[in-house]
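In this section we walk through a basic example: taking a raw amino acid sequence and producing a predicted 3D structure, encoded as discrete structure tokens. The instruction is simple. Fold the sequence below.
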Amino acid sequence: MSDLLRQEVTATAEKIVVKVGTRVLTDQQGNLDLDRIGALAEQLTAVAESGRQIVLVTSGAVGAGMHRLGMNTRPTDVATLQAIAAVGQTDLMQTYQKLFNEHGRIAAQVLLTANELDDRVSYLNVRNTLLELLELSVIPVVNENDTVSVDELQTTFGDNDQLAALVTNLLGAQLLIILSDVDGLYTGCPNAADSELVSTVTSFNETISSYVQESSGGLGTGGMGSKLNAVRMVTLAGENAVIANGREADVLSRVLAGEMLGTLFVAEGKTLSPWKRWLRFSAQPQGKISLDDGACAAIQQGGSSLLAIGIASLEGHFNKGDVVQLCNLNGQELARGLTNYNSDELHKIRGHRSEEFQQILGQCPYDEVIHRDNLALV
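The resulting token sequence is shown next.
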């Protein structure tokens, strides 16, 4: 069974990102499920051979490493997790390479940390590499580089759901498919008798958010809340997403045929440019600027640049060219942008007009603190 909306979304997607979770890749004993991974490789190959470009974002390194080392409980300390991931990543990639080879397709390992997508030059390098792999008819297999990512240094994505969303936006892919161990978004606990599967979400609201039911245990790290956050990043950028059960037979082929599997999340608003996507979703803010009501209205409703006269206060130490958050007086984030002035200069000129900058700073290189072309609304 399918509907016209799903058929349109899936038929027009020329570039697709598929994210598969640990619980889909492993069996009940925590071993890599070779039959399921083989079926996934076959389906991904079929998509690639149809002329579409496809990228796989995978979890499973820690789970595979725990099995290899005979561990039943997932450790919590960073060093042990990194070591386990180093062991498991080898098994995971060898499995993908073998199974893709059986279908005549080459796979390429791409390991990322958040730093690579935060820095603009590295971000573009990653994008160019992935696009070149796709042009070579290679299927990129993307995973977080767990062996060097550490929470204390803020280099982690949090989980591979977020990584998949960032890769989707990085490539401008029209569709993100998240394969999980649940059928999609339910109105409550998936196992409850009165809980129903939500077929289509056209806009996020408090009701949709209230449906999230998290579960604990297992090898995975990303629950439904994580998946909705990832989907939100994609739909706000103007693309579509599906959450479906990766344990269903031929799930990827059936989703792309427009079958009513899982939950479809429809794009909201116009498609963001690649520059705005990096600003809004990938770049990490180095400081926060609070704006008065007039500046908030000018930026949100008038499409204006940020002027110093509208700055009420600022937090953090940042340099010219850094990304900063723009917030209202209640602390709600409104936008992100590249600042033309460092924090020391802004402390001096906030609340002043640009014609006063020369007297205050001895120079006036820019009238705007942040030009509207370098602003991305949240």
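Looking at the output, two observations stand out. Residues 151-155 have pLDDT under 50 and may be disordered. Residues 62 and 182 are 21 Å apart (CA to CA). In the next section we compare this with other chains.
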